[in-house]
Amino acid sequence: MGRPEFDRKTAYIKKGEVWFDDGREEALVSYIKSHPHADSFQNKPHIILSVIDEFARTKDFMMTVGQYKGAVVTDLIAKERPQTIVEMGGYTGYSALLFGSALRDAWNGVEGAKPRYYSLEMSEKFAGIIRELVKLAGLDHVVTVVTGKAEDGLRELREDFKLETADMFFIDHYKPAYVGDLQRAEDLGLVRKGTWVVADNVVLPGAPGYLEYVRGTAKGEGIRKHVYESRLEESWEPTGEEDGLEVSKCIEVR
Ligand SMILES: C[S@@+](CC[C@H](N)C(=O)[O-])C[C@H]1O[C@@H](n2cnc3c(N)ncnc32)[C@H](O)[C@@H]1O
Q: How many separate domains does the chain show?
């Protein structure tokens, strides 16, 4: 497809030396609640997303997936119609709102469908903000937030939520943990033939070990059982810097 044009009018403020957990997340929640149009936000995930974008353009940088890379994932959700998605790294809920609503819409009106989006977030404070925004967006019947490190959250999904497999993963947490946590999901049986795995920030700041792993499986490298077909989707950080998503599909479990 190639990289679409970046519209400068949408650009977030550039990341400073400190870029999260310095009070800006609480400021975002206050900004949403005290917004002049706050009365119209209930059950409107896309309006809440546009307000998060507005905050990040005008007040403070936010480390969200943003609209450009976000569109790559929502297109994939609409096309492939996963029923269960697991994200690692939820922050303040931008991806949970965007992908949770795409998931709900993909199954709208289908009898018996139970679309589920699990957001695994290590920070209790951020997990609380995701829950609050998910409720405001009217997505609490679709999105479940699991607080804790992804490695523990994955085990919890398997053991407590009795999840057998997931149809899609969105990996967007701690770059050095991408490989280990994907392999943990594989070992728990959560990755089946046909599961999609989308990893963020593989260009900026980059995740070379992760790319080596998913791309290497197709060449028969390593002793792992899962084999992926993998491609880079070039896109943009919401600041306008070049980034990309690695989009992989598990094509075999040996
Ligand atoms: C880049 S942000 C996620 C952005 C989010 N997906 C969005 O689009 O708005 C990364 C998040 O991962 C969380 N995180 C870091 N290490 C983690 C881990 N091991 N397990 C779960 N969450 C983790 C951080 O607290 C942070 O909220």
A: 1
196 lines ligand 1 (CB under 6 A): no
Q: Is the distance from CB of 226 to CB of 110 less than 8 angstroms?
A: no
Residue 72: CB within 6 Å of ligand 1?
Answer: no
Q: What is the CATH number of the domain that holds 97?
A: 3.40.50.150
Q: Which domain holds residue 215?
A: 12-253
Task: Evaluate whether residue 230 is within a structural domain.
Answer: yes
Residue 1 domain-assigned (yes or no): no
Quick: pLDDT tens for 215-244.
999 887 778 999 999 999 999 999 999 999
- For the sheet with 143-147, list strands across it: 143-147, 116-121, 84-88, 166-171, 191-199, 242-253, 226-236
pLDDT 10s digits, 49-63: 999 999 999 999 999
Ligand 1 site, residue 121, Cβ cutoff 6 A: yes
ipTM score: 0.99
**In angstroms, what is the span from residue 90 Cα to ligand 1's centroid?**
5
